[in-house]
Amino acid sequence: MKPYKSMKESIFNTLNELEVQSTLEKSRMVDTLPENRMLAITKETGELLNMLLRLKNAKNMLEIGTSVGYSSIWCAEAILEQAGKIITIEQNPNKVKRAKENFLKAEIQDAVEIKEGHALDILSKMSCIDEYKEYFDFVLIDADKENIIEYFDLILPMVSVGGIIVTDNMLYPEKYREHMKKFSDYLKENPDLNTITSNIGNGEEITIKVR
């Protein structure tokens, strides 16, 4: 059943196809090289992102960690209603190729721009461009955890006041839990932010830039 009656058939079918693939990978029922695994957000997280984007009426979104495009498609489904656009960053060339194919299947390719390369390098360049100052009203961070604070610090000046930043994997995998708790505590020390940790999916930090 579609979560929204208005969801395009192409988006619905592509999301279903990717959910099946993700389930097979997580259950180890298919043999996939570690670097090619989807490592996708959960369906529940996709629904959460879609709802937050709708509540925010977001138009300009930034995503760190495209993978094969599952989360991007969930977000594009909502942001298209505002004639918005997603800029998404991915380092793995194979995943970039797969994401582009999935965007075509879902018929959302015009709403998504992929920047291929190292996220820190790309974000550093973007942060120097005046156009991106307080430009994004929604951000999803779903990339390597080692650089999570560096990503956030580069992103924050590019987020508009009232903008939302969602960070995935706050609770799972458990090996990152202590590291992500330190990240959450780091955010709570910033008086310009309000932040909470939700147990939806793999754990989502939902952060609002209040000033």
UniProtKB/TrEMBL annotation:
Keywords: Methyltransferase, S-adenosyl-L-methionine, Transferase. One of its GO terms (molecular function) is S-adenosylmethionine-dependent methyltransferase activity. The keyword S-adenosyl-L-methionine applies. SUPFAM superfamilies: S-adenosyl-L-methionine-dependent methyltransferases (SSF53335). Gene3D superfamilies: Vaccinia Virus protein VP39. The keyword Iron does not apply. InterPro entries: Cation-dep_OMT, SAM-dependent_MTases_sf, SAM_O-MeTrfase. It comes from the Archaea. GO terms for biological process: methylation. This is Caffeoyl-CoA O-methyltransferase.
